[in-house]
Amino acid sequence: MYKLIILDFDGTIGDTNKIITTTMQSTLRELGLPMRSAEECRKTIGLPLKGCFEALMPMSDSQLDSCADTYRRIFDEYNRTMKVDVFPGVMEKIEQWHADGAIITLASSRGHASLAAFVSQMGLDQYVSYILGADDVEIAKPHPYPVLKTMRHFGIAPEDTLVVGDMSFDILMGKRAGCHTCGVTYGNGTVEELQAAGADQICDSFLSIR
Predict the structure, then answer these.
(1) Would you call 3 exposed, middle or buried from its count of C-beta atoms within 10 A (0-12, 13-18, 19+)?
(2) What's the CATH number where 52 sits?
(3) Domain containing 174 — which CATH number?
(4) Number of structural domains the chain divides into
(5) Would you call 6 exposed, middle or buried from its count of C-beta atoms within 10 A (0-12, 13-18, 19+)?
(6) pLDDT in tens, 110-162
(7) Cβ atoms within 10 Å, residue 11
(8) What sign has the CA pseudo-torsion 64, 168, 76, 5?
(9) Domain containing 114: what range?
(10) Does 128 lie in the same domain as 141?
(11) Pfam families in the record, alphabetically (predicted)?
């Protein structure tokens, strides 16, 4: 049994695909930038916010700042009306891990305040002991820093740690920290991408994570 579970949020815990891609497209439209498809936007999920827009097209620093500010404002507006659901099996598995004594944490490219709000709304705050958002780390995924910081915080070794995510960034982050990794296929990444990143296990449902 793992002592420490480090979970991604978007596409792993919360089904945020629609609200993220819609917000990205609305941001591009409002700023008069070239439009990108929902699929193109989806492929950037998991990167830090400015990195998402930078992956879509070349931008200056000032344009990236404008995109980030506009995205956050529009996201807050959409978040009042667009419901974000927890993926099937997530609550049951987290409850099981918690009952078994595992420490459950989150490492996300989402900002800390937004991440904490979702954790509270979804009733996960009674299980999640530690949250790292994009503004809590000096170096983002796929660098192992978020995982290393979490393990150091709890004094737990890589061999006792499982990192779970839906994107190659998550798997690479965990592998580079020396941890066990699991890729879930129902999120934003593909099986091929998760395999190429070296996931130790690939699961079609959260409940089937071993």
Answers:
(1) middle
(2) 1.10.150.240
(3) 3.40.50.1000
(4) 2
(5) buried
(6) 999 999 999 999 999 999 999 999 999 999 999 999 999 999 999 999 999 99
(7) 23
(8) negative
(9) 4-15+85-208
(10) yes
(11) HAD_2
Vertex 166, ends 33 and 95: CA angle to 5°? 130
pLDDT by residue (tens digit) across 84-119?
999 999 999 999 999 999 999 999 999 999 999 999
DSSP the chain: --SEEEE--BTTTB--HHHHHHHHHHHHHHTTPPP--HHHHHTTBTB-HHHHHHHHS---HHHHHHHHHHHHHHHHHHTTTS--PBPTTHHHHHHHHHHTT-EEEEE-SS-HHHHHHHHHHTT-TTTEEEEE-GGG-SS-TTSSHHHHHHHHHHT--GGGEEEEESSHHHHHHHHHTT-EEEEETTSSS-HHHHHHHT-SEEESSGGG--
Q: How far apart are CA 204 and CA 135, in angstroms?
A: 30
**Diameter of the chain measured on Cα atoms:** 51
